[in-house]
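Recap from last week: sequence in, structure out.
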Amino acid sequence: MSEMEYVGSELDLFAGVHNWKEYWSAWVRPYISGDVLEVGAGIGTNTALMDRVPRGRWVCLEPDPQLAARMTQQVGAIAGTRGYENVCGTLSDLPPSDRFDTVIYIDVLEHIEHDADELKAAAARLRQGGRVIVLSPAHQRLFTPFDKAIGHFRRYSRAMLRDITPAGTSVEQLVYLDSAGLLASTANALFLKQSMPTKEQLGAWDKWLVPVSRNIDKYLGHSVGKSVVGIWRKI
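Predicted structure tokens:
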């Protein structure tokens, strides 16, 4: 993960999209168990959303020192019975013996140049039956100046995630989320080409489009959407 160019400027901008955060976190929470490693935890705003069974270790790993400092403050405010650990670094900075039941990448894998190598290293950290969970922006055709501005190397399709399945794991879920938001992303890619959305645009998407997606995605079989979730289980 040393190649990751972590810009982080979007984290504050997206901190207020509550409907979207609740949507994707509700999707991934059932797959989170045991000792957890959250890679690229940023400023820590997603941790509390995902952690609803506060037992065991939860390691928040963040390579950017400034973001890691903010993360320490954010996660410290929610600490309860679980032992949160904040680490400034990458997978290679963890003790070689560290093993986890869940390794999570929320809007992180697209920042990593050698993504297949990263998932291979993550899978090596799993205990038997453990999971790697990825949420990333979908569809390379929607790659915009915004993606470039915040350090994305790519956007993903389900096929792209399947192609980097780590050895010794099986695909448990590959689904798209936010079909309504896909329309807005398509419009931006075709017409606006903004390097950064405005707070008003994000607010409108979160307030109006995300609830629509939550209602219709299931009827579409999660076959379309602007974000993609991949979950692998160690076999």
